[in-house]
Amino acid sequence: MSHVHHLTILLFLLPVLVTCSLHGARVKLKYVDSTTDFSKSELIRRAKHRSLQRVSKLVSLVPSNNFSVACHASTASYVMDISIGTPPVLLSAILDTGSDLIWTQCNPCTACFAQPNPIFTPANSTTFSKIPCSVSLCKSLTKSTCNSECDYEYSYGDGSSTKGFMGYETFSFGADNSVKFPGIGFGCGTNNIGATDNSSGIVGMGRGALSLVSQLNVSKFSYCFNSIHNKGSSILLLGSWANMTSNISKSTPFMPNPHGSPMSSFYYLSLEGITVGETLLPIPPSVFQLTAEGSGGLIIDSGTRVTALEERAFIMVTRAFMSRIKLPQASGASLGLSLCFTLPDSGMKSVDIPKLIFHFDGADLDMPLENYIVEDTG
Asked: Which InterPro entries does this UniProt record tie to the protein (predicted)?
């Protein structure tokens, strides 16, 4: 008997984000699962699972200096190695453009999950100090209480949360910790729910006052993510190192954020339409429209691995692929995905896959095939 192969339609964006100081940095990133031996299908299943958890939480929110850092990736996230305190303590933290708070687990910890590095102990650092209730960073928290210190509570799109106290500390970057930034405000999490994918916490990169980019006062940053199947490092560039290169020919502006909305620190893009094959789908403009109250719209989010579309748009995209791929449908339950096809014995080379193009304000993103098609040979 011949093996049955499945062909899966999967919206799998690998974005480059550029926001636009005089100082800069270069940081390595890595995919959280890059040190594991998961199969391609399992990596995708894990990414989809966490992405949908995160999207569900995000939807519930809707009202009716020169240096370089390397990043590595997780089920749904990329991780950056930083050090905090004096002497420096190494941490692996998720890069998250969809939130603002910087935090890590701290001792004394009443509820902590397993992490790859030792838990940070503020009492062992000569540069740690607690943030008073009166300072603006404490007032920037949506959930904070004040007695003698600024206590915080923060939750995320995937259902995880952290509680603890706010402090100032020196953050160091680079293999030799040579690039140091004193006085960075962050959360010391002593009561934490949910794991953070082989990491010790989260580095918020959103537009709010608590984020790393806001506290460093850099006016632009950029990143380029490797595929989740690539074990190599990705790169985050901050400040003057984040300049656009001449070979980048397309760009799209961020949209103005809805003032005062729970979504106001997100990076909104103007998605104007979607083409499948040669056909621009008849999706009403209102489907992607961002309202003044903060409902609707589309965000680019480093913590959500698989693209999620509003239901009306998703149905149209699904039907367009169903009508153009002349193969029997198959179950995608093993991947947790809804639209799959049974491949012929000859494999992918005999299948005519239509193009998928996202039309943004001023730029058309013609998706590479591997960003939305997965061959599951298992």
From this structure: Pepsin-like_plant, PEPTIDASE_A1, Peptidase_aspartic_dom_sf, Plant_Aspart_Prot_A1, TAXi_C, TAXi_N
Q: Which of 96, 100, 151, 197 is catalytic?
A: 96
C-alpha of 162 from chain center: 18
> What pLDDT, on a 0 to 100 scale, did the predictor assign at position 2?
34
Q: How many CB atoms lie within 10 A of CB 140?
A: 19
Instruction: Compute the distance between CA of residue 214 and CA of residue 208 in angstroms, rounded to an integer.
Output: 7
Provide mean pLDDT across the span 292-320.
88
Catalytic-residue membership of 96: yes
Q: Are 11 and 309 in contact (CB under 8 A)?
A: yes
Residue 46: partners with Cβ closer than 8 Å, 6 or more residues away: 33, 38, 75, 76
What is the pLDDT at residue 1? 33
DSSP state of 278: T
| 191: exposed, middle or buried (Cβ count in 10 Å: 0-12, 13-18, 19+) | middle
Residue 63 CA to residue 263 CA, distance in Å, equals 9
Residues 120/89, Cβ–Cβ less than 8 Å: yes
Catalytic residue among 81, 151, 158, 301: 301
Q: Where are the alpha helices (DSSP H) in the chain?
A: 40-61, 136-139, 212-216, 311-324
215-218 — which CB contacts under 8 Å span 24+ positions? 215/102, 215/184, 215/185, 216/21, 216/23, 216/25, 216/65, 216/181, 216/184, 217/21, 217/23, 217/65, 218/21, 218/23, 218/24, 218/25, 218/65, 218/242
In this predicted structure, the answer to whether residue 71 has a pLDDT above a threshold of 70 is no
Is 301:205 a contact under the CB 8 Å cutoff?
no
Q: Check residue 205 and report its DSSP letter.
A: -
Tokens for 218, please give them: 């850099």
Active site residue 301: yes
The Cα–Cα gap between 305 and 103 comes to: 21
Q: Round to whole Å and give the CA distance between 312 and 307.
A: 14
Q: Give the C-alpha separation, 78 to 72, whole Å.
A: 5
Confidence of residue 52 (pLDDT cuts 50, 70, 90): low
Q: What angle do CA 15, 228, 342 make, to 5 degrees?
A: 100
Sequence-ordered list of residues with C-beta below 8 angstroms from that of 210, at least 6 positions apart, any chain: 100, 101, 102, 137, 140, 141, 185, 204
